[in-house]
UniProtKB/TrEMBL annotation:
Membrane topology: Peripheral membrane protein
Classification via InterPro entries: Cyt_P450 (IPR001128), Cyt_P450_CS (IPR017972), Cyt_P450_E_grp-I (IPR002401), Cyt_P450_sf (IPR036396), Cytochrome_P450_fam2 (IPR050182)
Taxonomic source organism: Spermophilus dauricus (Daurian ground squirrel)
Coiled coil regions, renumbered to chain: none
Keyword line: Endoplasmic reticulum, Heme, Iron, Membrane, Metal-binding, Microsome, Monooxygenase, Oxidoreductase
Keyword Magnesium tagged: no
Name by which UniProt lists this protein: Uncharacterized protein
Subcellular location: Endoplasmic reticulum membrane; Microsome membrane
Cofactor: heme
Annotated binding of heme, by residue: 419
Length: 474
């Protein structure tokens, strides 16, 4: 034990010659005593006041450079995007993905599915009509349910079935029990990875051998992977190489073409994990943003009323919303941005690494140095967003009521590892919100002033509290 203690002490001290200063780490446990595992993002904001926008924190025995504030984040992720484009270690996710998939591995699979490349086989940013077919279902179901309801499932249907249509060709029936289970797993997984236990697990991966919520997470994902494997087998049996129909077909064809290439990204394991990535990222983040958004509108009915006024003026009642409407609806656009800013869905970006030795300001980051970016420091910057703790669409409006962009708005991250589904998410959020408010007024079950919008859990994500509402036809 004494040897371990000594080695840990030496190991913890060694990087300090090159990396920025930060709180003094203790052997083995690092800076865990200076960090609140119930809200690490808040702890990092407090440390930034003492150590500046660039400092080092030890997560257990692992030193990580933390970047806070627009200037530092822009310099790293945008100005020097290639150097900071490596994917860092996130132990609970590493155990799941094992170096595969889109979250961990930024390989050639992105050529098949992209929002940025219109020539890719499945440009997610082009699925306006596909999205709206599923939005119509949400509106129809809300019409049928006049009694109070939890909107979680309704708001998950659109993003999940859009991804299903791209990956599996055919959408799920909304009464399908497997569909309900799949959505439940995604919500539960996002909650689990945001719990304090998982934050502790990421400090000390050896906790893998102990009981804890990580085992529930691994079990959920194993069940999801089993379901995905069944779908892949169905595609293998029906595959027509001359007429591919969806993402899986294209991937299987690429697998066959590259079966003799040992370095190929197109493997069965990578296919399973990539599908899981697309499902998880494409379903959970959008549906949680929208769920949190409706809660904020319940809390602020005056905002909801102004969006409805703009919908009436620009779209009316005789046609459905479309993406072309967004440029003529600055207030609605500002509300969507303010929802994403305020909820701060991913307070801390998944860790990056530097791909080579880097001189950053007066410091040297050796190749492989882990980088953690505080998105909270951008979205809650008091100079850019006065009174950031207040939900205020005016943060994105100029004096004339026109939409005002902000470089600090990096809710989808930035640089080489910006969210691949950004374009799709923006479309879904706009079409879901405008379609709901075109047809309904949102009615809370309690007085708006008594609604608590505080996250129930803050970890990898900010999880909204549970609530019910009524959809009242307009």
């Amino acid at each position: 034990m004494a040897v371990l203690f000594t080695r840990a002490k030496v190991w913890n001290q060694r990087p300090s010659m090159d990396l920025p200063p930060g709180p003094t780490p203790l052997p083995i446990i690092g800076n865990i005593l200076q960090l609140d595992i119930k809200d690490i993002a808040k702890s990092l904001s407090i440390l930034a006041k003492d150590y500046g926008p660039v400092f080092t924190v030890h997560f257990g025995m692992k030193p990580t450079v933390v970047l806070c504030g627009y200037e530092a984040v822009k310099e790293a992720l945008i100005d020097r995007a290639e150097e900071f484009s490596g994917r860092g270690s996130y132990p609970v996710i590493d155990h799941i993905f094992q170096g595969l998939g889109m979250i961990v591995f930024w390989g050639n699979v992105l050529g098949l599915i992209s929002c940025k490349n219109p020539n890719s086989h499945f440009c997610l940013g082009k699925n306006n009509e596909l999205i709206f077919r599923h939005v119509e279902f949400v509106v129809m179901m809300a019409c049928l349910g006049r009694s109070p309801c939890d909107p979680t499932f309704l708001l998950s249907c659109v993003p999940c079935n859009v991804i299903v249509s791209v990956i599996f060709r055919n959408r799920f029936d909304y009464g399908d029990e497997k569909f309900h289970s799949l959505i439940h797993y995604f919500h539960e997984n996002f909650r689990l990875v945001s719990t304090p236990w998982i934050q502790l697990y990421n400090f000390f991966p050896s906790l893998h051998y102990f009981p804890g919520s990580h085992n529930e997470l691994f079990k959920n994902i194993a069940n999801q992977k089993k379901f995905i494997m069944e779908k892949v087998k169905e595609h293998q049996e029906s595959l027509d190489i001359n007429n591919p129909q969806d993402f899986i077909d294209y991937f299987l064809i690429k697998m066959e073409k590259e079966k003799h290439n040992k370095q190929s990204d197109f493997t069965m394991d990578n296919l399973i994990i990539t599908i899981w990535d697309l499902f998880s990222a494409g379903t959970e983040t959008t549906s949680t943003t929208m769920k949190y958004g409706l809660l904020l509108l319940l809390k602020h009915p005056e905002v909801s009323a102004k969006v409805q006024e703009e919908i009436e003026r620009v779209i009316g009642r005789d046609r459905s919303p479309c993406m072309q409407d967004r440029s003529r609806m600055p207030y609605t656009d500002a509300v969507l941005h303010e929802i994403q800013r305020y909820i701060n869905l991913l307070p801390i970006n998944l860790p990056h690494t530097v791909t080579q030795d880097v001189k950053f300001r007066e410091y040297i980051f050796p190749k492989g140095t882990e980088i953690m970016v505080s998105l909270t420091s951008l979205l809650y910057d008091e100079k850019e967003f006065p009174n950031p703790q207040k939900f205020d669409p005016g943060h994105f409006l100029d004096e004339s009521g026109n939409f005002k962009k902000s470089d600090h708005f990096m809710a989808f991250s930035a640089g080489k590892r910006v969210c691949v589904g950004e374009g799709l998410a923006r479309m879904e959020l706009f079409l879901i919100l405008t379609s709901i408010l075109q047809h309904f007024t949102l009615k809370p079950l309690i007085d708006p002033k008594d609604i608590d919008t505080t996250p129930s859990t803050i970890g990898l994500g900010s999880i909204p509290p549970s609530y019910e509402l009524c959809f009242i036809p307009v």
